[in-house]
Design brief:
Order of helices and strands: HEEEEEHH
Radius of gyration: 17 Å
Strand content: 25-35%
CATH architecture: 2-Layer Sandwich
CATH superfamily: Chloramphenicol acetyltransferase-like domain
Number of strands: 5
């Protein structure tokens, strides 16, 4: 199964249950439906699920000034029997850094 093949079948509404079995990690985007925050639920045998939510303009303090910035909440649920909390938080911080500065992805910083 390739990502392109699965993506194409998903867009066409032709994914079957067998196409969704055996995954180890899921990314879910409730933000497209307006979700601001949720707790993603693991489906066995997956080790983790990352929830991404709606991007919304919010006030932030930057260098002592209040500025309006796009903000998005991320939520990570994971199986503690497989993943240690330190590694999960390290992963979540890395995802946050890459979203805040996409050039990091191309420069591999």
């Amino acid at each position: 199964k390739t990502i392109a093949s699965l993506g194409g079948r998903a867009r066409e509404g032709k994914l079957g249950i067998e196409d969704m079995l055996g995954g180890t990690f899921t990314i879910t985007n409730g933000g497209i439906y307006g979700s601001l925050m949720s707790t993603p639920i693991l489906n066995a045998p997956q080790s983790g699920i990352l929830g991404m939510h709606k991007i919304q303009q919010r006030p932030m303090a930057v260098n002592g000034e209040v500025v309006i910035r796009p903000m998005m909440y991320l939520a990570l649920s994971y199986d503690h029997r497989i993943v240690d909390g330190k590694e999960a938080v390290t992963f979540l911080v890395r995802v946050k850094e890459c979203i805040e500065d996409p050039q990091r992805l191309t420069l591999d910083l």
